[in-house]
Amino acid sequence: MMYMDWFVGTMKKTFNIEVNREDVSFEAYDFYHEELDDLLIPAKHLVKLPNPLLLETLMYVDDKGNEWVAAFATEEGTRRKLYEVWIKNGESIAYEIYVD
Questions:
Q1: pLDDT at position 1, please?
Q2: Domain boundaries, the chain
């Protein structure tokens, strides 16, 4: 999984949480814009992304029961990251858009 080491490293560096790779789940699906919730990708960002888009997610539950999700919209074929969002316990805490 391309972003596993990045996820584990970011959790340690940014949130000071040690994560074992084996405890991280991964999923990837194609979604049409109308299938996505505004929590995941706000409409003002979604219009800049392909439709459908490939969304890859990494999820981890820490020892306090907090659920951490990093989701990436990636370009099919190249897997270049187009959009990134971090969600903690169902609330968006950070995002980065990599396209104009």
A1: 57
A2: 26-97
